[in-house]
């Protein structure tokens, strides 16, 4: 099952006359930076939790055997740490295709380590998208990740790369680290 959001995202934001935009990354955008950027700063967004609740039919799984990748779920009083990149709007032509399996671009307030704030764009796969899998026990999620592989590689490498990158940023994400422990 998949829902290609490429066209939807293309029409979503008007970048006329805009030289650069902040992009907030909380998943693979933290460790797989295959796009040019003008600046890079750790940042946090408030009221969102990172969860392995989105199916991956195109990168870390297949249509018949989807893997699991992260999306953001609204969660009052929870902060999600990630990496913000200041990018040229041209970059979205590439990222909209890379993240086409159910993700839409939203505007979010971001807080940098020095307390300053900027708005950024963030890709979120909402619960109503066709590839959304939703919650499951950590052990079951870890089992699905361990068994999945797709054109971009093993699902376990996605999880382990993300956990390593978050640890390097000094983040403590109980959901990601619990899944990492099950996997190891
Ligand atoms: C991210 O790393 O911010 C991201 C996660 C899932 C889809 C698109 C982007």
Automatic annotation (TrEMBL):
Keyword Lyase among record annotations: yes
CDD domains: GGCT_like
EC number: 4.3.2.7
Record's keyword annotation contains Transferase: yes
Family annotation (Gene3D superfamilies): Gamma-glutamyl cyclotransferase-like
GO cellular component: cytoplasm
Keywords of this entry: Lyase, Transferase
Pfam families named in the record: ChaC (PF04752)
UniProt cross-references to InterPro entries, sorted A to Z: ChaC, GGCT-like, GGCT-like_sf
UniProt record, GO biological process: glutathione catabolic process
UniProt superkingdom: Bacteria
Gene Ontology MF: a single term: glutathione specific gamma-glutamylcyclotransferase activity
PANTHER family named among the record's database cross-references: CATION TRANSPORT PROTEIN CHAC-RELATED (PTHR12192), GLUTATHIONE-SPECIFIC GAMMA-GLUTAMYLCYCLOTRANSFERASE 2 (PTHR12192:SF2)
Name under which the protein is recorded: glutathione-specific gamma-glutamylcyclotransferase
Species classification: Bacteria, Pseudomonadati, Pseudomonadota, Gammaproteobacteria, Pseudomonadales
């Amino acid at each position: 099952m998949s829902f290609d959001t490429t066209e939807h995202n293309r029409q979503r934001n008007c970048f006329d006359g805009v030289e650069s935009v902040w992009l907030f990354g909380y998943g693979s955008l933290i460790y797989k930076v295959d796009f040019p950027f003008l600046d890079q700063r750790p940042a946090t967004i408030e009221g969102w939790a990172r969860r392995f609740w989105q199916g991956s039919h195109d990168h870390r799984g297949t249509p018949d055997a989807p893997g699991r990748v992260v999306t953001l779920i609204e969660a009052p009083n929870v902060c999600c740490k990630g990496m913000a990149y200041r990018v040229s709007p041209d970059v979205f032509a590439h990222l909209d295709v890379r993240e086409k399996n159910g993700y839409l671009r939203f505007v979010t307030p971001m807080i940098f380590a020095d307390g300053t704030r900027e708005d950024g764009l963030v890709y979120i796969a909402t619960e109503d998208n066709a590839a959304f899998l939703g919650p499951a026990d950590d052990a079951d999620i870890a089992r699905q990740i361990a068994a999945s592989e797709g054109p971009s590689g093993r699902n376990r490498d996605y999880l382990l790369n993300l956990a390593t990158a978050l640890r390097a940023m000094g983040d403590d994400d109980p959901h990601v680290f619990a899944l990492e422990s099950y996997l190891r």
